[in-house]
Inverse folding.
C-alpha cells in the first residue's frame, strides 16, 4: 500500500476525478511519450540522462507494467547488425527494427491462417518471471525494468496503474490486420472463440496486478478506431469483441479500482456500448479524430470520465496562444471531476518549450473552479 503522503493525495485526487467526486485539483497525466521527444526534452533543458519526466513535472499518474505478452521470452534475436535487428516478439510474430526509427515493422505474423488460431498458446499469466525479470513491452526490442522495480520507484509519490491488452489488440498482433478483417467476414466464430481465450489470459494478468496493494487501477489497451470511425462495422465489433471485453471489464471491476479503456481513433459509434460494458474512463480521446470531451461530458454527464484530448500533433506543436485556448476550453469538461487533460503519445514534433509551457499552465489553471474556467483571463 502507498505510504507516502504525496501518493495518498494523488490516489484520492485521481479516484475523485474518475468517479466525479469534485477532486481538490485536476490531475496531471501524460501516459506515453515518444523516446525521441524525451531525448529532445532532456537536451533542451540540459537535464541529466537519468531525469524522469513523471517526477520532474510531478504528475499524478504513472503506469507500471509487467510482461503482458503471451510468450514470456519476448525478444528472441534472429539477426542483428549495426543498422537493424530482426527478432521474434512476445506475440510470436517476427519484427524488424531499423535503429534509426522509433518503432519496428512486422515481417511475419505468428498465425498464417485463421484456422490455426486455436493452436496459438498463451503461456502462464501467473508465471513469476513476468513480474521479476526484465522484458520488452509488446513487440518492442529494448528491455524495461522488472515490474516490482518499477513499483518501488514510484509507489511513494504517484497513483500507479497497471495494464493489459484486450482480445482485439492480441488478434492483430498475432494475425495482422488484413487477415483479421478477412476473418471478421469469413470466420467470425473462430475469431470470437480466440477472443474469449485471449480475454481469459488477460483477466488473469489483470487480477495479479490489481491484487498488488500499490496498483490503484488498470488500463486495458485495445485500439478499435482510426481517424474517421471504427476499424470495422459496429455490428461486427459487437458480435466478435464485445463479449470478451465485457468479461474482462466485469472481472477487473470486482477489485473496486478504476478500469480505463484505451483506444486510439474515433470510437463514438460504440460509446454507449463502452459505457454499458462498465469502463470508468476512456483514453486518449484523440482530438484529431474528432473527439471533444466537453461535448461528451455535456451529453453523457457522469456516465464516463475521460483522459487526454489535447491535440499533441497540432495544438501542442502550435503557438502558446493555441495551447492556452485549447486548455481553457477543454478544462470545462473537468467540472466536479470527469476529465484529466493530456496529449496522445507526445511526439517529437512537440517542442520541449511548448510542452513545458503547457504543463505549467495546467498547474496554474487546475486550481480554479472548472465550472467558471472559460471566464478567466490569463497572461502567457
Amino acid at each position: 500500500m502507498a505510504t507516502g503522503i504525496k501518493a495518498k493525495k494523488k490516489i484520492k485526487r485521481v479516484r475523485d476525478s474518475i468517479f466525479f467526486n469534485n477532486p481538490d485539483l485536476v490531475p496531471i497525466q501524460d501516459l506515453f511519450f515518444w523516446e525521441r521527444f524525451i531525448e529532445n526534452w532532456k537536451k533542451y533543458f540540459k537535464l541529466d540522462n537519468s531525469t524522469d519526466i513523471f517526477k520532474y513535472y510531478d504528475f499524478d499518474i504513472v503506469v507500471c507494467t509487467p510482461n503482458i505478452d503471451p510468450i514470456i521470452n519476448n525478444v528472441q534475436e534472429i539477426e542483428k547488425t549495426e543498422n537493424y535487428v530482426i527478432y521474434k516478439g512476445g506475440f510470436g510474430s517476427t519484427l524488424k527494427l531499423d535503429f534509426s526509427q522509433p518503432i519496428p515493422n512486422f515481417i511475419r505474423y505468428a498465425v498464417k491462417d485463421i484456422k490455426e488460431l486455436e493452436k496459438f498458446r498463451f503461456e502462464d499469466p501467473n508465471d513469476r518471471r513476468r513480474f521479476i525479470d526484465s522484458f520488452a513491452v509488446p513487440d518492442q526490442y529494448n528491455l524495461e525494468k522488472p515490474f516490482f522495480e518499477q513499483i518501488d520507484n514510484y509507489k511513494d509519490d504517484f497513483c500507479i496503474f497497471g495494464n493489459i491488452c484486450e482480445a482485439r489488440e492480441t488478434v492483430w498482433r498475432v494475425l495482422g490486420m488484413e487477415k483479421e478483417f478477412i476473418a471478421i467476414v469469413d470466420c467470425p466464430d473462430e475469431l470470437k472463440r480466440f477472443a474469449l481465450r485471449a480475454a481469459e489470459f488477460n483477466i488473469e494478468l489483470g487480477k495479479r496486478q490489481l491484487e498488488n496493494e500499490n496498483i490503484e487501477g488498470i488500463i486495458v489497451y485495445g485500439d478499435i478506431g482510426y481517424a474517421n470511425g471504427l476499424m470495422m462495422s459496429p455490428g461486427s465489433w459487437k458480435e466478435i469483441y464485445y463479449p470478451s471485453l465485457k468479461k474482462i471489464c466485469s472481472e477487473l471491476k470486482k477489485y473496486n479500482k478504476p478500469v480505463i479503456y484505451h483506444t486510439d481513433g474515433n470510437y463514438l459509434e460504440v460509446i454507449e456500448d463502452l459505457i454499458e460494458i462498465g469502463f470508468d474512463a476512456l483514453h486518449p480521446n484523440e482530438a484529431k479524430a474528432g473527439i471533444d470531451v466537453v461535448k461528451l461530458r455535456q451529453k453523457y454527464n457522469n456516465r464516463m470520465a475521460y483522459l487526454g484530448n489535447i491535440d499533441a500533433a497540432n495544438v501542442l506543436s502550435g503557438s502558446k496562444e493555441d495551447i492556452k485556448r485549447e486548455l481553457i476550453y477543454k478544462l470545462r469538461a473537468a467540472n466536479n471531476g470527469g476529465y484529466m487533460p493530456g496529449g496522445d503519445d507526445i511526439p517529437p514534433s512537440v517542442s520541449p518549450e511548448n510542452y513545458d509551457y503547457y504543463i505549467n499552465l495546467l498547474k496554474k489553471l487546475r486550481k480554479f473552479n472548472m465550472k467558471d474556467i472559460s471566464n478567466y483571463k490569463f497572461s502567457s
